């Protein structure tokens, strides 16, 4: 069976449990039509790039599935009809990557405070001592 990745965006005024309930609902839709959800992730509430139906934020969910195209079409049809779902994106992939998605990896890095190879941010190209020296030079020039 083909492999798919789905991203669902639900309305921001849902609770976390309701948003996770949507993930379960669409997982069962895929299962009822001969597919299976390999993995799902709840990405949380995120700011949208632009307003969708007067919403600035939305609950993001990510599903990896192994399902026939008919099951995916039915899931997308029901998602578009569902009042709480604002957007659905489905992409067919050649293989599912192991481990968490890129979004979850970024989230983990932010939580750890990992800054990668940015180096020491303490030296910002000058310190307060330089300002004092400049001020003294200006004072000397004014006296002459």
From TrEMBL:
Pfam families per record: Ribosomal_S6 (PF01250)
A Gene Ontology biological process term: translation
Domain of life, source organism: Bacteria
The keyword RNA-binding belongs to this UniProt entry's keyword annotation: yes
Stretches of the chain forming a coiled coil according to its record: none
CC terms in the record's Gene Ontology section: cytosolic small ribosomal subunit
SUPFAM superfamilies in the cross-refs: Ribosomal protein S6 (SSF54995)
UniProt KW Ribonucleoprotein keyword: yes
Molecular function terms from GO: small ribosomal subunit rRNA binding; structural constituent of ribosome
Keyword vocabulary terms for this entry: Ribonucleoprotein, Ribosomal protein, RNA-binding, rRNA-binding
Chain segments carrying region Disordered: 92-144
Function: Binds together with bS18 to 16S ribosomal RNA.
Family stated for the protein in its record: Belongs to the bacterial ribosomal protein bS6 family.
PANTHER family with a match to the protein in the record: MITOCHONDRIAL 28S RIBOSOMAL PROTEIN S6 (PTHR21011), SMALL RIBOSOMAL SUBUNIT PROTEIN BS6M (PTHR21011:SF1)
Protein known as: Small ribosomal subunit protein bS6
Gene name in the database record: rpsF
């Amino acid at each position: 069976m083909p492999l798919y990745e789905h991203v669902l965006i639900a309305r921001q005024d849902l609770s976390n449990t309701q948003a996770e309930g949507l993930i379960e609902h669409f997982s069962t839709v895929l299962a009822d039509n001969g597919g299976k959800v390999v993995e799902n992730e709840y990405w949380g509430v995120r700011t949208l790039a632009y307003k969708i139906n007067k919403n600035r934020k939305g609950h993001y969910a990510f599903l990896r599935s192994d399902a026939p195209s008919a099951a995916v079409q039915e899931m997308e049809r029901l998602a578009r009809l569902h009042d709480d779902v604002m957007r659905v994106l489905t992409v067919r992939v050649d293989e599912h990557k192991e481990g968490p998605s890129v979004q979850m990896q970024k989230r983990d890095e932010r939580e750890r405070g990992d800054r990668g190879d940015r180096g020491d941010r303490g030296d910002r190209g000058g310190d307060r001592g330089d300002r004092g020296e400049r001020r003294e030079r200006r004072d000397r020039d004014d006296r002459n």
